[in-house]
Amino acid sequence: xxxxxxxxxxxxxxxxxxxxxxxxxxxxxxxxxxxxxxxxxxxxxxxxxxxxxxxxxxxxxxxxxxxxxxxxxxxxxxxxxxxxxxxxxxxxxxxxxxxxxxxxxxxxxxxxxxxxxxxxxxxxxxxxxxxxxxxxxxxxxxxxxxxxxxxxxxxxxxxxxxxxxxxxxxxxxxxxxxxxxxxxxxxxxxxxxxxxxxxxxxxxxxxxxxxxxxxxxxxxxxxxxxxxxxxxxxxxxxxxxxxxxxxxxxxxxxxxxxxxxx
Length: 262
Ligand SMILES: Nc1nc2c(ncn2[C@@H]2O[C@H](COP(=O)(O)OP(=O)(O)OP(=O)(O)O)[C@@H](O)[C@H]2O)c(=O)[nH]1
Hints:
Layout: H1 3-17, H2 25-102, H3 112-129, E1 133-140, H4 143-150, H5 152-169, E2 175-180, E3 183-189, H6 193-208, E4 212-214, E5 217-219, E6 223-229, H7 236-252, E7 258-260
Parallel strand pairs: 6-7
Antiparallel strand pairs: 1-3, 1-6, 2-3, 4-5
GO biological process, one term: negative regulation of bacterial-type flagellum-dependent cell motility
Catalytic activity: 2 GTP = 3',3'-c-di-GMP + 2 diphosphate
Enzyme class: transferase
């Protein structure tokens, strides 16, 4: 309320209360007007108060809603982060499981499972396309002596290094794997016996030239191998058995050599 307004109200109140103006014909009408004006003012004040309370309640409600929304959003973000992390862990675990079921943990070469699958696939492919393939079984000579004389850890290092050299010597589409113990298998797709023999000789030569240092000594490793070319309509296991028999012949003939299966 302005100062002039307050002064005007004060003047009206004084005039209405003054006994001197009691008989003035305007005094009654002014009194009624003053009364209505005061009532109107009171109602407006009540409405303003109610509106203020309502606005403040609405503000509070808005605030609590916003806070609740923020809290739920933060919880959702947390759940999403946990779920992302969980999914990442599951993916890694899956990969690790797949790796463990298809690879030898020591040498990281393929284990029997993928080797057998690839041999089966090659049998199918060779039947369909009339292409041949070869299987080479390779075995470290006198490996028991390496373990006995130098210990199991050195034996493990020999296996790891042999696998590394073997893998480095074969072509990208060949498959090297650990068949078990000190025995390895190389699958050579689209390869005839003569070419496969050259590749196996190259592998054997590289392994012979491997330098495995043991203090001042160097450990020399030799490999025997048996090689078989897949025959039309032969199962993968029959080819494998012929390669194995050729390996046995190579061992019997004095080791450090490769024999071709008949
Ligand atoms: N260090 C180590 N040794 C292994 C592993 N797997 C198998 N061996 C050993 O490999 C040796 C194989 O011995 P044998 O089957 O007698 O073969 P070898 O001594 O190589 O004899 P030939 O094959 O006839 O030349 C055994 O002593 C096994 O304990 C392995 O993962 N690590």
